Amino acid sequence: MSSSSDKLRYHTLSNELKIPSLGLGTYQNETTSEAIKNAIVEQNVRLLDTAMMYGNHEMIGQTIEELLDEKKIQSKDDVFIVTKLWPNRLVSREEVRKGTEKCLDDLKMHHVDLLLMHWPLASEKKEDNMAKLHEAWKEMEKIYDEGKAKAIGVSNFTIEHLEQFLPKCTVQPMVNQFEMHPLLNQEQLALYCRKHHIQPMAYRTLGHGALLDNEKIKKMASRVGKTAAQVILRWALQRDFVIIPKSSKVERIKENSDLFDFELSEEEVKELNAMDENHHFCFDSSDFEGLREMIFGSDKYPKP
């Protein structure tokens, strides 16, 4: 577990690319251009996490261009961009390519820093799913080799998924993004990822806001002179995760970024670890049938 605040600001991926440890999540299209500008310029947050399904690529691309025009950043490379391909774009190599090109066009970029598979789902048939994921990955490897993604990875992959997926990869995933918070500390998955040189990236770290009123966390926050959100986020940083708390409120973005002037003790980290209940606020990707129904069986999401 890391302890130095300076060391916690970046991680180095398996291909030597540096990734900021703190980013801004943009899920559900809540994050505005103003909020992104504040995060980058005022709070020095230099990672943005987005996805095709979030519907905000064009806004993010325009915001980055405005920051360039305003000379608030020197180049687009000053901001680390993470995006994700939805399962309807993983069903074939052709769809992976088309999806990636659309991402780049909408973001107004020649490359993204990190391209992820959003879910471990590429087929409506379980028996075909892993083979389809491998085919999609081959195209992502090609996109990586072409420099259109500086790094590639997965999202919501469990240990079981990775055990089946990794042996056939020529380029190993560099990141796995998954739900992680005190009620779902994902210790075994994080250990497995690190063993295979995969950087863990956490989303839903504040439990969709539900953990901010937890009495144990509030008492710890009072003890260290920080907010409940800052305690949880610092806990995740000290466990060597990349974190991407989302907010559209300037004051909350500032709070979520003020994490590098204090440190939790080893006992406090263990206390938060012990809260684990294997509780998901988001969908549990180990349930293939449920995942298939949620994504391919819903009118809310695009189908293959």
Characteristics of this structure?
304 residues, 8-stranded parallel β-sheet, 11 helices, 39% helix, disordered N terminus
Kindly describe this structure.
This protein is an alpha/beta fold and 304 residues long. The chain is built from eleven helices and ten strands. It has helices at 33-41, 57-69, 93-107, 126-145, 159-165, 187-195, 215-224, 228-238, 250-257, 266-273, 288-296, and strands at 10-12, 18-20, 24-25, 47-49, 80-85, 112-117, 149-155, 175-179, 199-203, 242-243. The protein has an eight-stranded parallel β-sheet. Helix 2 packs parallel to helix 3 and helix 3 crosses helix 4. The longest helix is centred in the middle third of the chain and has 20 residues, at 126-145. The radius of gyration is 19 Å and the shape is globular. It starts with 9 loop residues before the first strand and ends in an 8-residue tail after the last helix.
What would you say about this model in short?
With 304 residues, the chain is an alpha/beta fold. It is 39% helix and 14% strand.
Largest sheet, described in full?
8 strands, parallel
Q: Indicate the overall shape.
A: globular
Q: What share of the residues does DSSP label as strand, in percent?
A: 5-15%
Radius of gyration over alpha carbons? 19 Å
Helix and strand pattern: EEEHEHEHEHEHEHEHHEHHH
Q: State the end-to-end CA separation.
A: 42 Å
Helix content: 25-40%
Write down how many β-strands occur, each being a DSSP E stretch of 2 or more residues: 10
Give the neighbour order of strands across the main sheet. 3-4-5-6-7-8-9-10
Category from helices, strands and their pairing: alpha/beta
Q: Uncertain segments of ≥5 residues (pLDDT<50)? A: 1-5
